[in-house]
Each structure stands twice: as C-alpha cells, then as structure tokens.
Amino acid sequence: KIHPRVGTRSQWDEKIPQRPWRRSQWSAGPRNATQWDDGVRFRPRPEPIAVARRLPAAPPQQAAELELLAQVRGAAGVTDGDEVAKAQQAAPGGAAPTIFSRILDRSLPADILYEDQQCLAFRDVAPQAPVHFLVIPKKPIPRISQAEEEDQQLLGHLLLVAKETAKAEGLGDGYRLVINDGKLGAQSVYHLHIHVLGGRQLQWPPG
Fold first, then answer.
1. Which residues form the active site (predicted)?
2. Which of 20-29, 70-79, 85-94, 162-171 has the highest mean pLDDT?
C-alpha cells in the first residue's frame, strides 16, 4: 500500500510540470558581457589572440656582457648537468682570456671576499651550497694539471686563502674544496679555480 503523501516517482513526475529543454539562443556562439542566458549573466569569453613581436637585439657590447655573465654562471656548478655540458664545449687552449680575466680586471662585477697580490676570492653567482665561493690565482694557469714547479708557493697560498676565507664565512664545522680539471673533470672555465662549498651537510660521492 502506498501512502497518499508519498506516492510513486511516476505519480510525482506527472504532478510536477516539466520544463521543456531548450538550447539557449546564446549558447551557439561566444557570450559577451551584455548577453544573458536564462537570467544568468556570463563573463566575457576571451578569444585567443596570438601576437608575434620581434624584440630588439641587444647592442653588441651588452650582448657580450650577457654572454660573459652566462659563462660566470657556467663556472658555478660542481658536477651538475649544465656544468658537464658546458665543459664539453669549453676551449682548453693555453692562457687565453676567460671570464675570470674580466673579473680580475674589474670589467665585470663580482662580490669579492678577499684579494691580495696573488689571488682573488669571490662569491659564486650560482651557489650550490649556502656558502659557495671561488678562489682564483691572478696568474692565468689554465688547469691544475698544467701547474708548474714554480707554482708551488702560489698553489699553497690558494689553499691558505680558501681556509681563511671559509673561516671568515663561518664554516667552522667543515666545508669542501673542489678543483675541476679538464673535460672529464667538468671544467668549464680554463682558469684554475677552487670551489669552496659549505653551510650544509654535503654528500659523498659528489657525482
């Protein structure tokens, strides 16, 4: 027995007037702010617009500066993929000028931490650790493997400067020194440089 106030679904369907389905006159095309659909106003539907513009080329001097800054960033990594890729393209020849030469002659800016007559220490522009700086000799030695016996005092001095600068940077709990050499060593700038990294727990092996 069906309660008279409940009834069946079909009975209630017969009592409720059904709204005939119709397609809105506006649904066939994009709506705008003045169009209405069943009393509901819609926001405009933006049409896709493609705009192609040719950006002005950077002046030659500025383009050269940007390229040099990119090289500085390339010298930042230790064994990451970008550094390895740049190392494959780097020119290992002789004592040719490099990005570090520009930093030494002040034609490019750097955040210098220490300087004396033999070397320069400055922060890495793309640090791989909370503290990451480079120590470079002012003498243009391309690679550690190309250092000569006459460079013994200079090489020892670089290590002492790295130690003292690390101490000044608060790396009393330890740090890592890295020297990349050649293509397989991921050296992307052929001017001898020591990476000093610290400020976090470093892992081993590095890569």
1. 193
2. 162-171
SS3 176: strand
Using alpha carbons only, how large is the chain's radius of gyration in Å? 34
Contacts 24+ apart (CB under 8 A), 107-116: 108/65, 108/68, 108/69, 108/72, 113/165, 113/168, 113/169, 114/161, 114/164, 114/165, 114/168, 116/161
Q: Is 132 a catalytic residue?
A: no
| Pair 114, 161: CB distance under 8 Å | yes
Residue 44 is which amino acid? P
Q: In this predicted model, what pLDDT tens digit does every residue of 97-138 receive, in sequence order? A: 899 999 999 999 999 999 999 999 999 999 999 999 999 999
Rounded Cα gap, residues 63 and 188, in angstroms: 20
The encoded tokens of residue 61 equal 């001097």
H helix runs in the chain, sequence order: 9-15, 60-74, 81-89, 99-104, 152-168
Q: Give CA–CA dist 195/175, Å, rounded.
A: 10
Which one of 132, 191, 193, 195 is the catalytic residue? 193
For the chain, give percent helix, strand, coil, nearest 5: 30, 15, 55
Closest to 192 (Cα-Cα) out of 180, 175, 183: 180
